[in-house]
Amino acid sequence: MRKLFAAGVVFAILAALCEVAAIRLFGHITDEVLTTRELGAFWVPAIWWLGLAALAGVTSFAGAYATALGAERFLLALRDRVYAHVQTLAPDFSEKRRLGDLMARLTDDIEAIEELVGSGLVKLITTVAGVIFFAGAAFLIRWDLALLTMALIPLFLVVSKVFAGRFRSAAALERASNGAMNSVLEEGLANQPLVQAYNRQDAESRRLHREGRGWLRANMAQAWLAGLYSPVVQVIETVCLIVILGFGAWEIAAGRLTLGGLLAFAAYLALLYPAVQSLGELALTVSEAAAGSDRVIEILRTGPAVTDARDAAPAGRGRGRIAFERVGFAYPGRGRPVLRDLSFAAEPGDVVVLAGPSGAGKSTVAKLLLRFYDPDEGRILLDGTDLRCLTRESLRDNVTILHQETLLFSGSVRENIAYGRPGATLDEVIRAAEAAGVHDFVKVLPHGYDTPVGQRGRLLSGGQRQRIAIARAILRDTPVLVLDEPTSGLDDATAAQVMRPLERLMAGRTTLLITHDLRHLPDRARVVALEPVPREERIRLKRVGMPPRGPRSPAPDRPAASDRPAASDSSGASGRPVVPQRLAVPGRPAASGRSAAAARSAASGRSETSGCSAASGCEGASASPGPS
Predict the structure, then answer these.
(1) Which of 551 and 237 is assigned the larger pLDDT?
(2) Distance separating alpha carbons of residues 86 and 80, to the nearest angstrom
(3) Computed from CA positions of residues 437, 443, 448, 451, in that sequence, does the dihedral angle turn out positive or negative?
(4) Cβ–Cβ under 8 Å, residues 241 and 96
(5) Above 90 in pLDDT, residue 324?
(6) pLDDT, average across residues 173-199
(7) What letters, b where the CB count within 10 A reaches 16 and e where it falls short, cover 205-215?
(8) How far apart are CA 282 and CA 119, in angstroms?
(9) Is 322 in the same domain as 293?
């Protein structure tokens, strides 16, 4: 890109030099041919003039093309970088922002920066070079007239500065209004069935009109400033030309200046003043780009919630044993804990059901396991190794998650199934589809596995989308599986159809099943009941700023697992351990089986398997500041 911009500058400077030489030839023709009427002296300078014009055209085109190519490549690279950075941020970065506004930042705002850094920078260099060339040529004709001309240039700069400050404020308002309007459009189109079902078409139109009015006002403020700037500058330019022509006529009458010299001088001014005006317009472009760059820089300055430690090691394909040891966590900036003292372990083949009311932290457990965040207290182990000692990419290669909302892209059925393994063959895709119950309905689609599924899979039913997601998980084939409400929103018959391939998928894998519905649990499932952190602890955290550390008073006694009929009955086998999330240590009631072992291990502060921790040998594993 730098070479392209450099080439654009060189070609633009050559074009300016050609214009300087052509104007000089014009003055020569005026004095030597037109005033003397010697037509024989016309042809040689005319041919030179034509050659200079052709050379100026070629160099101008080459400079413009090189600059445009460099600018577009810069735009592509910048958008790629910003988008790649967004992909490293925690999920709540996008969740806390309006999608349409983010889209505007990745498109319109980046294009504004491209206009400044790409074409704007080249334009600045070439315009300054043009000003120097045209002013220098004017000085060669009459230095006193040139000094008079230069004395009026600061007036251009003052006007440009006044307009640029106001233009930046108007541009910032326009960028924000554009993002808000895009958000309304995106939400309305994404939720069109809901809008129509609730007869809210007029309300959505009014929302768009309200945001559009704000965008219109911001745009008109920009248009008013831009429209006023040009006439003001033109008036100043006209005054300058009148003064110069009047003074030049006086000099011609006195015999101190030729007509060709005056016309050439006026031609240089005709190029010099627009060049100075372009510098002023560039100031307006800078103001507009600065408004867009502020919004893009805000994204780039937002750091990921977690980063890899300096000595983080790749995980390889593990067995899939996971353990949570006294894990506590609060989302950055929210001030209240979501998890406190959570401890459990799961071996390959285990199905651990995370149950509890909304807000108890079930989905947060999945986010911590995938290391979207690091716990504030305690640690999480994969095959005995603290997750903070593993690279995030290798960790996530060991985990497959089925989200509560089935996520599909607008490609084909095959592309969606192979999303977790892009290099999978068609035979592998078909085997995974058969195991998930997808193959039967795909066979009747118009183009089979190459049939597009539509935006977010809208051309398919809810059950079909869910089974495609299951096929994607089967093909990915990782030792750890996270199922987030896999039967949410499905009727009993469809839920049973979905659970059959899921039970085959869970075989031999460590599975975390997040669900409110305990009717379709596998027989071997073990329930971990999560409870919201009590209100008094949230208030204490908000006042103090950090959760209390050190010894805590024992929690009040809770009923044993066998005395919890709601959880045990719904799971299909009485006596399954139900491990409350908020059990103080010491004072944790015993639980049977592996749950008891995990509880005892957590209470004693020892891991059941050895592994490095962030404190004992994994350098740089601390969480970076969360998203603002």
Answers:
(1) 237
(2) 10
(3) negative
(4) no
(5) yes
(6) 72
(7) eebeeebbebb
(8) 10
(9) no
Q: Angle between the 2-29 and 43-88 helix axes, to the nearest 10 degrees?
A: 160
Query: Considering the domain boundaries, does residue 467 fall inside one?
Result: no
Q: Does residue 270 share a domain with residue 176?
A: yes
Q: Which three-class secondary structure state does DSSP give residue 249?
A: helix
Structural domain contains residue 481: no
| Closest CA relative to residue 342, chosen from 173, 547, 485, 142 | 547
Question: Parallel, antiparallel, or unpaired for β 377-382 and 385-386?
Answer: antiparallel
What average pLDDT does the structure give for the chain?
75
Q: How many domains does the chain have?
A: 2
* Buried/exposed code over 342-352 (b: 16+ C-beta within 10 A; e: otherwise): bbbbbebebbb
Name residues whose C-beta falls within 8 Å of residue 466's C-beta, 6 or more positions apart in sequence.
406, 486, 490, 498
Same domain for 283 and 194: yes
194 domain-assigned? yes
Shared domain for 176 and 296, answered yes or no, is: yes
Strand blocks (E) in 261-415: 322-330, 337-346, 351-355, 377-382, 385-386, 399-402
In a domain, 463, yes or no: no
Q: How far apart are CA 238 and CA 156, in angstroms?
A: 12
The packing angle between helices 259-301 and 2-29, to 10°, is: 170
Same domain, 277 and 137: yes
Angle at 76 between CA 72 and CA 79, to 5 degrees: 135
- CA 39/CA 445 separation, integer angstroms: 81
Parallel/antiparallel/unpaired status of strands 322-330 and 377-382: antiparallel
* Tokens at 534, concatenated: 């009590």
Determine the structural domain holding residue 226 and report its residue range.
2-301
**Beta strand 351-355 pairing with 525-529:** parallel
CATH number for position 49: 1.20.1560.10
The answer to whether the beta carbons of residues 42 and 33 sit under 8 Å apart is: yes
**What is the DSSP secondary structure assignment for residue 537, as one 8-state letter?**
H
Token pair in block for residue 572: 């299909």
Q: What is the mean pLDDT of residues 450-460?
A: 80
Same domain membership, residue 217 and residue 366: no
Report how far residue 54's alpha carbon sits from residue 610's, in angstroms, rounded to the nearest whole number. 78
Task: Give the residue-averaged pLDDT of 526-532.
Answer: 85
| pLDDT tens-digit series, residues 151-169 | 777 777 777 777 777 777 7
Q: Do 324 and 250 share a structural domain?
A: no
Residue 513: in which H helix or E strand, if any? strand 510-514
Q: Can you say whether the dihedral through the CA atoms of 540, 545, 547, 548 is positive or negative?
A: negative
Q: Exposure of 358 by Cβ count < 10 A (0-12 exposed, 13-18 middle, 19+ buried)?
A: exposed
258 and 345 housed in the same domain? no
Amino acid in position 339: L
Strands 480-484 and 510-514: parallel
What three-state secondary structure class fits 56?
helix
The neighbouring-strand residues paired with 385 are: 382
Q: Is the pTM of this model over 0.90?
A: no
